[in-house]
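User: Structure with flavin-adenine dinucleotide, tokens only please.
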Amino acid sequence: MLVAGDAGGFVNGFSAEGIYYAMVSGDLAAASVADALATQAAGHSLYRRRWHAEIGTELEDAVVLQRSLFDDTRKIDALVEARRTERRS
Ligand SMILES: Cc1cc2nc3c(=O)[nH]c(=O)nc-3n(C[C@H](O)[C@H](O)[C@H](O)COP(=O)(O)OP(=O)(O)OC[C@H]3O[C@@H](n4cnc5c(N)ncnc54)[C@H](O)[C@@H]3O)c2cc1C
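Assistant:
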């Protein structure tokens, strides 16, 4: 069984976007199943390699951003304030 989209955790933890990742992971899961049936390769290995290459890095980066920014609302406040100040100048 291969899981894609929200069910597979393919959501950007920083931007909360999931549509793109659902479409990409669904596409890669379907291609991996088709290739596994045609070549007797392990579908889950193909799928893991493919999603990691395509969207793995950005999802990992999003988790780092999410953890470093959202663990303390004062950081978000500082970010919004910095942007507001920048706009005025
Ligand atoms: C309020 C809100 C706003 C969002 N805004 C954005 C946005 O602006 N941009 C963005 O990229 N992402 C956004 N997202 C996230 C995005 O909607 C999801 O990441 C994306 O829809 C995931 O697609 P999916 O196919 O994995 O799951 P889903 O779109 O949830 O599809 C799953 C489907 O399976 C069906 N289902 C569930 N259980 C069963 C069952 N037992 N049998 C048969 N069918 C079943 C459900 O009815 C549903 O149709 C938002 C989410 C929410 C809740």
